Amino acid sequence: MAADPNLKPLLKILIGVAWIDGQIQPEERTYLHRVAAEKGLENEPEIQSLLHEARGVKPEECYTWVNEYLGEHPTSDACQQLIEAISGLIYSDGMVDSAEAKLLANLQSLDPTQATSESGKSPVLTAVRSVYQRWISTLNS
Predict the structure, then answer these.
(1) Alpha-carbon distance 69 to 74, whole Å?
(2) What are the b/e assignments for 124-141, b being 16+ CB within 10 Å?
(3) Which of 19, 27, 31, 140 has its CA 20 to 30 Å from the CA of residue 89?
């Protein structure tokens, strides 16, 4: 059985998100290595060099990967899957960096259903917003 062609680009995005604040946190590193192993991508050369931090990922590169992954006309399902995957990474260290929150907000704005229906709010987005609001309140304390 062939591997899902979306797994490698998705893992690259997750690695890029981990770098979006300028460094990978230990919990994020552990999470990324676990996901790579679960998906059978830990030995893929490009993924391996990113996982072992042979080079960093700039935010612009991460956004390029996101745009390539979603395509010109992203579907609601693709947006939600990406948001859920990114949320898993963000929850791994329990902190939402402002760059991570900005990326999630951008992804939400790309979701075609968000423009038409506020009643169908994603539970993942609601949870991420909650973590972000708690994080902001600790900064203001």
Answers:
(1) 9
(2) bbeebbebbeebeeeeee
(3) 140
Q: What is the pLDDT of residues 59-80, one digit of tens each?
A: 999 999 999 999 888 888 888 8
pTM metric for this prediction: 0.77
Radius of gyration of the chain (CA): 15
Residues whose CB is less than 8 angstroms from the CB of residue 39 and which lie 6 or more positions away in sequence, other chains included: 3, 7, 11
Q: Alpha-carbon distance 93 to 115, whole Å? A: 30
Pinpoint the alpha helices (H) of the chain.
Answer: 7-19, 26-38, 45-51, 59-70, 76-93, 98-110, 112-116, 123-140
The answer to whether 20 and 103 are in contact (CB under 8 A) is yes
